[in-house]
Amino acid sequence: MAIRVNINVLMAKQDVGAGDLAERIDLTPANLSILKNNKAKAIRFSTLEALCRELHCQPGEILEYVPEDKD
Amino acid sequence: MKTINDIANNGKNGAGNADRSIMLTRIAVIILLAVSFGLSAAGPYLTNLFLNVTLHGKIRCGAAAGVAFPFVLLLGYCCAATFLVMLFVMLRFLKRLETNRVFVSENTEDLRKISRCCAIGALLTVLAGILLYLPIIFIAAAAGFMTLVVLVIKNAFEQAVIMKNELDLTI
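YS: structure for the whole thing
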Protein backbone atom coordinates (compact mmCIF):
# COMPACT_ATOMS: atom_id res chain seq x y z
CA MET A 1 0.00 0.00 0.00
CA ALA A 2 1.27 3.50 -0.84
CA ILE A 3 0.48 4.89 2.61
CA ARG A 4 2.84 3.67 5.30
CA VAL A 5 2.01 3.85 9.02
CA ASN A 6 5.06 4.81 11.06
CA ILE A 7 3.77 4.04 14.54
CA ASN A 8 6.64 1.62 15.13
CA VAL A 9 9.23 4.38 14.76
CA LEU A 10 7.35 6.80 17.01
CA MET A 11 6.76 4.10 19.62
CA ALA A 12 10.45 3.19 19.65
CA LYS A 13 11.51 6.86 19.91
CA GLN A 14 9.23 7.44 22.87
CA ASP A 15 9.77 4.01 24.38
CA VAL A 16 6.05 3.14 24.47
CA GLY A 17 4.93 -0.51 24.53
CA ALA A 18 2.26 -1.83 22.17
CA GLY A 19 -0.03 -3.05 24.96
CA ASP A 20 0.31 0.23 26.84
CA LEU A 21 -0.43 2.34 23.74
CA ALA A 22 -3.38 0.12 22.75
CA GLU A 23 -4.89 0.63 26.20
CA ARG A 24 -4.31 4.40 26.14
CA ILE A 25 -5.96 4.91 22.74
CA ASP A 26 -8.74 2.41 23.48
CA LEU A 27 -7.83 -0.10 20.73
CA THR A 28 -7.44 -3.85 21.00
CA PRO A 29 -3.83 -5.08 20.71
CA ALA A 30 -4.92 -7.02 17.60
CA ASN A 31 -6.17 -3.84 15.90
CA LEU A 32 -3.02 -1.93 16.86
CA SER A 33 -1.00 -4.76 15.36
CA ILE A 34 -3.01 -4.48 12.09
CA LEU A 35 -2.21 -0.77 12.04
CA LYS A 36 1.48 -1.28 12.87
CA ASN A 37 1.93 -3.92 10.19
CA ASN A 38 0.34 -1.75 7.47
CA LYS A 39 -2.53 -4.21 7.03
CA ALA A 40 -5.23 -1.58 7.72
CA LYS A 41 -7.39 -0.35 4.83
CA ALA A 42 -8.42 2.88 6.58
CA ILE A 43 -7.94 4.80 9.80
CA ARG A 44 -10.63 6.71 11.68
CA PHE A 45 -10.04 10.37 12.59
CA SER A 46 -10.77 9.46 16.21
CA THR A 47 -7.99 6.82 16.16
CA LEU A 48 -5.59 9.25 14.48
CA GLU A 49 -6.45 11.90 17.03
CA ALA A 50 -5.83 9.48 19.91
CA LEU A 51 -2.51 8.40 18.40
CA CYS A 52 -1.39 12.03 17.93
CA ARG A 53 -2.41 12.81 21.51
CA GLU A 54 -0.57 9.87 23.05
CA LEU A 55 2.52 9.99 20.82
CA HIS A 56 2.72 13.82 20.92
CA CYS A 57 3.01 14.16 17.16
CA GLN A 58 1.24 15.37 14.02
CA PRO A 59 -0.74 13.09 11.63
CA GLY A 60 1.97 13.61 9.02
CA GLU A 61 4.51 11.93 11.30
CA ILE A 62 2.28 8.85 11.62
CA LEU A 63 1.32 8.53 7.97
CA GLU A 64 3.79 8.64 5.10
CA TYR A 65 3.20 8.44 1.35
CA VAL A 66 5.58 6.02 -0.37
CA PRO A 67 5.18 5.80 -4.17
CA GLU A 68 4.77 2.19 -5.32
CA ASP A 69 7.11 0.67 -7.91
CA LYS A 70 5.32 0.29 -11.23
CA ASP A 71 7.29 -2.83 -12.22
CA MET B 1 -40.52 9.42 22.63
CA LYS B 2 -38.57 6.14 22.65
CA THR B 3 -36.35 5.44 25.62
CA ILE B 4 -33.08 3.54 25.40
CA ASN B 5 -34.79 0.55 27.02
CA ASP B 6 -37.49 0.56 24.29
CA ILE B 7 -34.82 0.61 21.60
CA ALA B 8 -32.89 -2.21 23.34
CA ASN B 9 -36.09 -4.26 23.69
CA ASN B 10 -36.92 -3.70 20.01
CA GLY B 11 -33.44 -4.87 19.11
CA LYS B 12 -33.88 -8.02 21.20
CA ASN B 13 -37.32 -8.68 19.65
CA GLY B 14 -35.85 -8.18 16.18
CA ALA B 15 -33.06 -10.66 16.89
CA GLY B 16 -35.60 -13.11 18.35
CA ASN B 17 -37.81 -12.79 15.25
CA ALA B 18 -34.81 -13.32 12.98
CA ASP B 19 -33.79 -16.46 14.94
CA ARG B 20 -37.35 -17.78 14.77
CA SER B 21 -37.53 -17.05 11.05
CA ILE B 22 -34.25 -18.91 10.43
CA MET B 23 -35.49 -21.86 12.52
CA LEU B 24 -38.81 -21.99 10.59
CA THR B 25 -36.95 -21.85 7.29
CA ARG B 26 -34.72 -24.71 8.45
CA ILE B 27 -37.77 -26.77 9.39
CA ALA B 28 -39.30 -26.06 5.96
CA VAL B 29 -36.09 -27.11 4.21
CA ILE B 30 -35.88 -30.31 6.29
CA ILE B 31 -39.52 -31.12 5.45
CA LEU B 32 -38.76 -30.51 1.75
CA LEU B 33 -35.71 -32.78 2.06
CA ALA B 34 -37.87 -35.54 3.54
CA VAL B 35 -40.49 -35.09 0.81
CA SER B 36 -37.78 -35.14 -1.87
CA PHE B 37 -36.31 -38.37 -0.49
CA GLY B 38 -39.81 -39.87 -0.39
CA LEU B 39 -40.56 -38.83 -3.98
CA SER B 40 -37.16 -40.15 -5.11
CA ALA B 41 -37.90 -43.50 -3.49
CA ALA B 42 -41.25 -43.59 -5.30
CA GLY B 43 -39.58 -42.62 -8.60
CA PRO B 44 -40.62 -45.61 -10.74
CA TYR B 45 -44.24 -45.45 -9.50
CA LEU B 46 -44.42 -41.68 -10.16
CA THR B 47 -42.89 -42.12 -13.61
CA ASN B 48 -45.61 -44.65 -14.50
CA LEU B 49 -48.25 -42.31 -13.14
CA PHE B 50 -46.85 -39.41 -15.15
CA LEU B 51 -46.72 -41.45 -18.36
CA ASN B 52 -50.23 -42.85 -17.87
CA VAL B 53 -52.04 -39.75 -16.68
CA THR B 54 -50.44 -36.89 -18.58
CA LEU B 55 -49.37 -38.61 -21.74
CA HIS B 56 -51.95 -41.44 -21.85
CA GLY B 57 -49.15 -43.90 -22.40
CA LYS B 58 -47.87 -42.11 -25.49
CA ILE B 59 -44.78 -40.01 -25.90
CA ARG B 60 -45.12 -37.18 -28.37
CA CYS B 61 -41.44 -37.10 -29.21
CA GLY B 62 -40.48 -39.79 -31.67
CA ALA B 63 -36.86 -39.98 -30.56
CA ALA B 64 -37.83 -40.80 -26.97
CA ALA B 65 -40.78 -43.05 -27.81
CA GLY B 66 -38.96 -46.35 -27.28
CA VAL B 67 -37.27 -45.35 -24.08
CA ALA B 68 -40.02 -43.32 -22.45
CA PHE B 69 -39.92 -44.94 -19.01
CA PRO B 70 -36.15 -44.90 -18.40
CA PHE B 71 -35.86 -41.45 -19.99
CA VAL B 72 -38.49 -39.90 -17.72
CA LEU B 73 -37.09 -41.77 -14.70
CA LEU B 74 -33.55 -40.56 -15.43
CA LEU B 75 -34.75 -36.99 -15.97
CA GLY B 76 -36.70 -37.17 -12.71
CA TYR B 77 -33.69 -38.45 -10.77
CA CYS B 78 -31.46 -35.76 -12.28
CA CYS B 79 -33.96 -33.11 -11.15
CA ALA B 80 -34.19 -34.76 -7.71
CA ALA B 81 -30.40 -34.86 -7.33
CA THR B 82 -30.14 -31.18 -8.26
CA PHE B 83 -32.92 -30.29 -5.84
CA LEU B 84 -31.37 -32.33 -3.01
CA VAL B 85 -27.97 -30.70 -3.52
CA MET B 86 -29.67 -27.29 -3.44
CA LEU B 87 -31.52 -28.12 -0.21
CA PHE B 88 -28.33 -29.37 1.49
CA VAL B 89 -26.51 -26.17 0.45
CA MET B 90 -29.46 -24.15 1.82
CA LEU B 91 -29.21 -25.99 5.14
CA ARG B 92 -25.49 -25.20 5.35
CA PHE B 93 -26.24 -21.57 4.50
CA LEU B 94 -28.90 -21.35 7.23
CA LYS B 95 -26.56 -22.93 9.77
CA ARG B 96 -24.03 -20.14 9.09
CA LEU B 97 -26.77 -17.52 9.49
CA GLU B 98 -27.64 -19.05 12.87
CA THR B 99 -24.04 -18.61 14.02
CA ASN B 100 -24.08 -14.95 12.87
CA ARG B 101 -21.67 -15.62 10.01
CA VAL B 102 -23.64 -13.70 7.38
CA PHE B 103 -21.34 -11.73 5.10
CA VAL B 104 -18.64 -14.34 4.54
CA SER B 105 -17.28 -15.62 1.23
CA GLU B 106 -18.60 -19.15 1.96
CA ASN B 107 -22.16 -17.79 1.81
CA THR B 108 -21.48 -16.14 -1.56
CA GLU B 109 -20.13 -19.46 -2.81
CA ASP B 110 -23.23 -21.27 -1.52
CA LEU B 111 -25.54 -18.76 -3.23
CA ARG B 112 -23.61 -19.37 -6.45
CA LYS B 113 -24.17 -23.12 -6.03
CA ILE B 114 -27.89 -22.57 -5.36
CA SER B 115 -28.21 -20.44 -8.51
CA ARG B 116 -26.40 -23.14 -10.53
CA CYS B 117 -28.78 -25.77 -9.17
CA CYS B 118 -31.74 -23.58 -10.21
CA ALA B 119 -30.21 -23.14 -13.68
CA ILE B 120 -29.65 -26.91 -14.06
CA GLY B 121 -33.24 -27.50 -12.89
CA ALA B 122 -34.47 -24.98 -15.48
CA LEU B 123 -32.51 -26.70 -18.26
CA LEU B 124 -33.76 -30.15 -17.28
CA THR B 125 -37.37 -28.99 -17.14
CA VAL B 126 -37.01 -27.22 -20.50
CA LEU B 127 -35.81 -30.55 -21.89
CA ALA B 128 -38.76 -32.35 -20.26
CA GLY B 129 -41.15 -29.71 -21.58
CA ILE B 130 -39.90 -29.94 -25.15
CA LEU B 131 -39.65 -33.73 -25.27
CA LEU B 132 -42.47 -34.86 -23.00
CA TYR B 133 -45.13 -32.47 -21.85
CA LEU B 134 -45.19 -28.80 -22.81
CA PRO B 135 -46.78 -27.34 -19.61
CA ILE B 136 -43.60 -28.37 -17.72
CA ILE B 137 -42.06 -25.32 -19.43
CA PHE B 138 -43.80 -23.20 -16.76
CA ILE B 139 -41.66 -24.90 -14.09
CA ALA B 140 -38.60 -24.12 -16.22
CA ALA B 141 -39.65 -20.47 -16.37
CA ALA B 142 -40.04 -20.38 -12.57
CA ALA B 143 -36.65 -22.05 -12.07
CA GLY B 144 -35.05 -19.63 -14.55
CA PHE B 145 -36.56 -16.68 -12.71
CA MET B 146 -35.31 -18.10 -9.38
CA THR B 147 -31.82 -18.40 -10.91
CA LEU B 148 -31.84 -14.68 -11.68
CA VAL B 149 -33.17 -13.74 -8.23
CA VAL B 150 -30.52 -15.83 -6.46
CA LEU B 151 -27.80 -14.40 -8.72
CA VAL B 152 -28.85 -10.84 -7.83
CA ILE B 153 -28.75 -11.75 -4.10
CA LYS B 154 -25.36 -13.41 -4.63
CA ASN B 155 -24.00 -10.24 -6.24
CA ALA B 156 -25.33 -8.15 -3.35
CA PHE B 157 -23.68 -10.56 -0.86
CA GLU B 158 -20.40 -10.35 -2.78
CA GLN B 159 -20.41 -6.56 -2.44
CA ALA B 160 -21.37 -6.82 1.24
CA VAL B 161 -18.46 -9.21 1.90
CA ILE B 162 -16.04 -6.73 0.28
CA MET B 163 -17.50 -3.86 2.34
CA LYS B 164 -17.34 -5.91 5.56
CA ASN B 165 -13.69 -6.82 4.92
CA GLU B 166 -12.90 -3.12 4.39
CA LEU B 167 -14.76 -2.21 7.56
CA ASP B 168 -12.97 -4.92 9.54
CA LEU B 169 -9.66 -3.39 8.47
CA THR B 170 -10.71 0.17 9.37
CA ILE B 171 -9.02 0.93 12.66
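YS: worth flagging: The two ends of chain A are 15 Å apart (CA to CA).
IM: good catch. Also The beta strands of chain A are 3-5, 63-65.
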